[in-house]
Amino acid sequence: MQDGKVLLATSVPTPSPPAPRRKPWSVLGTLALLALAILPLTVGKDFTLHLAIQICINVVLVSGLSLLARAGQVSLCHGAFAGIGAYVSVLVVMGLGQPFLLGVVAAMLAAGVFAFLLGTVMLRLTGVYFVLLTFAFGEFVRLVLLEGDSVTGGANGITGVPPAALLGHVLDYKTGFYLLALACAAGVIWLLHTLYRSPAGHAIDAVGENAQLAEATGISVRGTQRYAFTLGSALAGLGGALTAHYLRYVSPESFSMHLSLALIIMMVVGGRRYLFGPVIGALIMTPLPELFRGAVETQNIFYGAALILMLRFLPQGLASLFRSRRVQKEKIQGGKA
After folding, report:
1. Is the alpha carbon torsion for 33, 284, 60, 22 positive or negative?
2. Quick one: three-class SS letters along 232-292?
3. Which helix (H) or strand (E) holds 312?
4. What are phi and psi of 161, to 5 degrees?
5. pLDDT value of residue 20
6. Spatial distance between the Cα atoms of 26 and 19, rounded to a whole number of angstroms
7. Residue among 65, 100, 86, 96 at smallest CA distance from 238
8. What pLDDT, on a 0 to 100 scale, did the predictor assign at position 329?
9. Do the beta carbons of residue 319 and residue 271 sit within 8 Å?
10. Structural contact between residues 86 and 80, judged by C-beta atoms closer than 8 angstroms
11. 277-316: buried (b, 16+ CB within 10 Å) or exposed (e) per residue?
């Protein structure tokens, strides 16, 4: 009788799981991003292209910062790593006469190596102690750039930086550089999308959610955070290199604590634990300085008020709104079923 039951159970074919369907909200989101990407090209104005380039560069920078935030740490020296990348790229291209792509690779490697060495020591600490050390390192980098007149140009910076060039094409016009910056931003989003779906990405999320529980399951908390810190800082180096070859000028004040704080605000506004949080934050916060260009004090007040309201009412950022609506729809559909 028992054997009969077994035979009966094994003879019944198990239904194959339905093929996953792409959610309508994801399709609409993809179409919206494509429309926003094409919009600057259709408008064709220099000012619009300039804002679009800045948004793409900020997406690269904030994505690197959000990677570390997902691992449970916040850095106040992200602007310093962007500065390291900017200066290394400029020195490789101008000083050594190497092509633009090699300068970008060197910028990412330099920022990543500094972050790896720094993280080996600093990630022993957590919370406010880690934040204070990153603040100190950011100020240290700024002072080194200020005092290194013979190499960095000191407070005057370095002018006449060559424009980006790819395959023999010099991107000294805004449309060309926008396509380059857009490709870099899309590549970074794709890279993080792939990473977050991998075992390494799952380890990062586990450490960010509960470091003690993650370590109890065999995940190296320090090793995971160091990996996120290194990769995120390498992305900061990429953003710094793009900034240098777009503005064609670098100075220590361009990568000071103000840049790090602005990137943190973008990350918080967009959503630090969401893939498209950096995109949303950059889209909203990047144009604001242009709108408040004539009133710097008002701009700082608005930034502070926006950050306070965001932390009070939307601590997970604007990207959490889309997830909340999706969860509600899934609950309603599940209840009907």
Report:
1. negative
2. HHHHHHHHHHHHHHHHCEECHHHHCHHHHHHHHHHHHHHCCCCCCHHHHHHHHHCCHHHHC
3. helix 296-313
4. -65, 130
5. 44
6. 16
7. 86
8. 46
9. yes
10. no
11. bbbbbbbbbbeeeeebeeeeeebeeebeebbeebeeebeb
> Element (H or E) spanning 170, and its range?
strand 169-170
Task: Classify residue 248 as left (phi > 0), alpha (psi -120 to 50) or beta.
Answer: left
Cα gap 326→276, rounded to integer Å: 15
Cα(217)–Cα(63) distance, integer angstroms? 27
Residue with structure tokens 């989101």? 29
What parts of the chain have a pLDDT lower than 50? 1-22, 25, 326-335, 337
Grouping H, G, I as helix, E, B as strand and the rest as coil, residue 159 is strand
Q: pTM value?
A: 0.85
Helix pair 199-209, 46-70: axis angle to 10 deg? 70
pLDDT digits (tens, 9 = 90+) for 115-135: 999 999 888 887 888 899 999
